[in-house]
Amino acid sequence: MTGYTSEQLQAMVRPDRVHRAIYTDPAIFEIEMEKIFRRVWLYVGHESLVPNPGDYYCTHLARQPVVLSRHADDGICVLFNRCGHRGARVLNAERGNAKVFTCMYHGWSFRPNGALAGVPMRKDFPEEPLEDPQFGMARLPRVESYRGFVFASFNPDAEPLLDYLAEARHGIDELVDRSPESKVALSAGCHRYHYRGNWKLQLENLADMYHPAACHASTVGPDGRQFKRRAGAEGGDAAFFAPNGEAIVAQTGVRGLNNRHSSEASLFDREQSGGHWDDYRAIMVQRYGEERTADILKNRRHSMTFFPSSDILLAQTSVRVIRPVAVDFTEVEVWPVRLEGAPESISDDLVRFVNITHAAASFIQSDDMEAFERCQEGLTTQGSDWVLVARGLGAEIDEGSGVLFGPRSSEVGQRAQHEAWRDLMGA
Amino acid sequence: MSVTAEARAAAGSNVVGLDELRRFIEHEADLLDERRFDEWCDLYTEDAAYWVPAAPEQESWLDHVSLFYDDKATMRTRVQRLNHPRIHCQSPPSRCVRVISGATLDGVTTDGAWLVRSKFVMVEDRPGNPQRVFGGRYAHTIVHDGERLRIRLKRVDLTNCDQSFPMLTQPF
User: Fold this and answer.
1) Which domains does chain B carry?
2) Full residue range of the structural domain in which residue A348 is found
3) Residue of A70, A123, A132, A75 lying closest to A99 (CA atoms)
4) Which of A125, A153, A181 is the last residue of a domain?
5) pTM attached to this predicted model
6) Beta bridge partner(s), residue A388
7) Residues A411, A275 share a domain
8) ipTM value of the model?
9) Chain B within 8 Å of A363 (Cβ-Cβ)?
C-alpha cells in the first residue's frame, strides 16, 4: 500500500475526531476503493429496474462499470460491463432489453447472465479459453437482494448481506411496508448531481441533524416556517424553530448502528392526513389492519444510511446512491420510489416533492453542495489536521443490538461511519 | 404561422404579433439576467408552471423527476430563497446572460394562448467557480390577461437534461 501502514490509517480516526487527510489525499482514496468499496456490500440497484428477462441497467461500483441484469433462469445478475475478448465496455445505453448483449468491437455476444453466447468466426479460436467463464462477461462474486434492493460485493468472502445490513435493514422495511403490496418501483428516473468534494462529505451529511439551522437558513420564510416538503395537510410547512430558539431539527436524535450505519429520527411527529392521503390510508388499513398501518405510517425515521454509499430517504420516500469518482469529486443519484398499490396521486406527489428537496436545483440540496465544496477547500489548509465529530460524545444511549441513540443532533452517526472506516482501512 | 383573429379575440387583444411575443420573452430573460426575481415571478399567471424536464421528450412531470417543476407557490418560495440574505450557494451571486434566438410562433390554443418556441444559451459565472454554459430550447405558453402578456407555462429542454449537474440556482 503506497505511503500508509494499517496502523497509520487506524490512527486517523479517534473517538472524537478524524484526520483531514482522509478527505484530501488521493493515495487514501485509492486505498478506500480497495479496502472499503471492494470489500463490503454495495447497493447496485432495485429489481424494479430490470423486471423482465433480458432487461439491463448500467451503473458503476467502485468506479467500475457494471450491469444489473435479469436472466430467465439465473434471475438477477451483476456483471462487469466488459467484453471477455478485448475488454471494451459492452452495454452503452443506461437501460434496455436484449436477448444477448453484443460488443460493438468484434461482435462477441453474451447472455444476460454473462455467459458467452456467440463468437464470429469461432473456429479460428482455440476452444479452451472460450469455455472459461472469465472470457464471458464476468459476474461479481456475490449478489444478494433484500426486499428488491440488490447489493453486490467484489469480495467472495463477504459476510451474508443481512449480517452486514444488521439493524439498518429496518430502513428498507420502513420504505417497502409503505406499499400496500409491499412492493416499490424505482420507475420515475433519478436526480443526478455532483460536487467538487470527497464522498464522505455527503455520507456524513446524511446523519447530520445539526447543520440545517445555519446551512438551510434560506429555506425558512419570514413567518419562521420551512417550505412545504410533503403532500397533505400535515405534510410540511412546519415551524423551523422551537420556542427556545433552537432549530427543531437540531433537537432531533440520530442513531449509529452496528458501528457502520446511521439513521436520523423523523422530524415529523405525526402522520400525514387529508385529501388522497386518507384514501391511501384506507387501502393500507385494508391490507395491514389499523394497528400495523399506524405503526408503518408513524414517521419513525428521517433516513437510513448504509455504509459506505447508499441511503433510504424515508422523509422523501427515495433512495440515494453516492458514487465516489475521485478524492475531490463525487456524483450522487436520488431516486424517488413509487408505492405499488397506493393511489397514483400519492406516488405523483412523492416525485414532485423530491424535485424541490433533492434535485440539483432544489432548495435544500444546493446549499449542502455549497457546504461540501467549502469543506473540501477548507480541509486543504494546514491550520489543523483534525476534523471534530464530538457532538454528543458520551451522551449516547445504548438501545441494544448494536444501536446507539444520540439525542439532540448528536454526531454519533458520523462516529459510527468513521469506526467502520477505521476497521476496514486498518485491516 | 399567423395568429388567428379568433385567437386574438379570445385573448382580448388584436395587436399581439410575433415581434411583441419575442420582445416579451426577451424581457423575461432580462429580468432573470438582472436578478429582478420578484418581477420575473410576476410575469407568470396564478395557474402557471415553470418546468425543466430531466429527460429528453419527457411527457409528464408526474411520473418522472424534473430539474424544476414549480407551480406558482413554489416559484414564490424559490424567489423568496433567491432573495434571502443567507442563501449560501449564492454568496457570491451568479452573473448570467441569456441569449435567445429563432423565436417562432408555433400555434395558438383554443383558449387563445400563444405557443412560442425559441433556442437559448445561458452563460453563468460565479466568482471562484468554473464558468458554466447551458443551452436548449424554450417553449413559452403565453396568454393576454386583458392588461398584459403573462406566461402560463415555460418549458425548458436542456441539451444535457438527463446528465449530472452541479448545483443549480438560476432558472434558465
Assistant:
1) 5-158 (3.10.450.50)
2) 167-425
3) A70
4) A153
5) 0.95
6) A17
7) yes
8) 0.94
9) yes
